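Marked as duplicate of an earlier ticket. Keeping the data here for the record.
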Amino acid sequence: MKYFAWPRWHRHSIRLKGFDYAQPGMYFVTICARNKEWLFGEIQDGKMELNEWGRIVEKCWYEIPKHFEHVSLNEFVIMPNHVHGIISIHSSRNHVGARHAVPLPKNRKFAGAIPGSLSTIIGSFKSAATKRINESLLLDHMNPWQRNFYEHIIRNMKDLNRIRTYIKENPAHWENDEEFTPATQSADRY
């Protein structure tokens, strides 16, 4: 009997095929809250006002370099329902993990986590923030994050400066942001 799997179980990578996300470089990431819910605070007078969950997310973001010595952080903002940030991955003698892309076997689409890669860094950040949010709620099952994250490989200084400006100005342009949705739910109800 042939096994039938529903299409939702077939995940397709949104990463650039063949690109090594563990190699040194700068990456612009966007991490969304589940269902685009306003979980991290609100925009007031063009400025982001973090709630308790937003402060937890902020603390976890700034702790990333403590857990990944080959990483530094650049511009960053928490929005009501998503996070934007720039992560720099540097080469390091102490870094353990893949430095070059390893081709996957033809019969396998995904190879597990690569130590020190962008996906591993973001996964660790999301996990730490989730754990701390659940501790604040005295729960163990609330996941504030949408599956996956969006990334853009920063290729030059012009690109970097454009993205920095976008991140800095994001709260002031909130209602025009592609992630903007009217607030219908918030962290206060959990």
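See parent ticket for discussion. Helices lie at 52-62, 64-67, 118-137, 157-169.
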